Task: structure prediction
Amino acid sequence: MTEPDSTFDSASELLGNIAEQLGARLSHLPLPRTRPPMTAPTLVAVGHGSRDPRARATLSRLLDRVRELRPGLDVRLAHIELNAPLLDDTLAGLAAEGRDAVLVPLLFAPGHHVTHDLPAALAAAPGLRARVAEPLGAHPLLVEALADRLAEAGWSPEDGTSPATGVVLASAGSRDPRSGAEIRRIAALLGERLGGVPVLPAYASAAAPTVPEAVRALAARGRHRVAVASCFTAPGLFATRAAAHAPWIAADPLGAHPALARLVLHRYDRVRTRLPRRELAAI
Result:
């Protein structure tokens, strides 16, 4: 009769041999395919660029606010011209890293830069999966930032009901008619926010009226106490010229206003979910 301990030892040895043989066979099989970790596309905030040294620093502070609102998101600044990093270089770097991207124009309306320059830059980076978001545009968050900058300059709630006050909304300007239409919508929303005061759009280049012309138009309506609202993201030549024509107060550019940072993320979020998914590499 076989001892129980002897039977147990024989069975254990047999199972060990089977496991060893099975392990040797499985070692030659490919590892199961796994999905790479999903990461959010990089947010590339695209500014125009300026020779004013304050401009790049201002946009950097704006993007610091964006990062505070969305910890862990890869946020990068790029410029169409004049300042580094240039957009083409930024996109080439992202393509080399294998990153997806959403380009958020730090511009207020459709125009040549949004409709031509940004798509052309993407076409020059064929290895990059990316989309262009809408410009900042006529949005309540933008109007909030414009109104706050006016208040910082000295605008009060009583000014919104005075028959002597008016506002000129100064922006860069574009020959694209869609741009003018968008700026007019922003002006209308700002007028409502300020209590019904007339807000006339004006442009630093490429379109009419100019800031002085808009100021005169308001004066002809009895509005001699005119403020200039700055529809610019950062200090620069156009913003400085517009402010110099203010008969009364002039607001600072929007800069790192918290509402503008939220608007940048809003434009990003509306596009990022429509990026094509990367296909898994064959193993």
User: Anything to note?
Assistant: Residues 1-9, 22-37, 278-283 have pLDDT under 50 and may be disordered. DSSP finds nine helices and seven strands in the chain. The first helix runs from residue 4 to 26.
